[in-house]
Amino acid sequence: MIFVFLGPCSLISQDLCRFCQGLHINLVQHSAIVLLLSFAFRLYILGSDVFSNRRVPSPSLIWIICLSSLALMAVPIIAYYVVQTEVTPEVLKRFRLEGYMATNYNIFGGTAEILLDALGCCLSPIVMTLIFIVRRTLIKRIAKAV
Fold first, then answer.
1. Would I find Protein biosynthesis among this entry's keywords (predicted)?
2. Where in the chain are the domains?
């Protein structure tokens, strides 16, 4: 897979563009995880029949949980940045991309690339499914309380 950087990316640097692309992809995943944590926390607060011995965590603990989830997302960002390589001039010429900055992301390369793709492919649907399940349970709990 070849990514072609157009516009301002061509003026700044290829490394910054690769970093921004990796950051964007992983922040999208991180937002889904934070959304899941948000719904789960609301369900935890409202669910006295499920969590009978619950106590409300402090705001600092909630911040620590959110920041630790962000720190965990740093690993894929770094791995995604590292596995991208320069595109050879022959490939650029073959695809008529001379004059553009391009990066090769070899998804069929080594073990790191395959594990990175597998992690993203497995986690995305699981997190989205959990969001819908927890959200539906939360809506039922709120409807029952009203």
1. no
2. 2-145
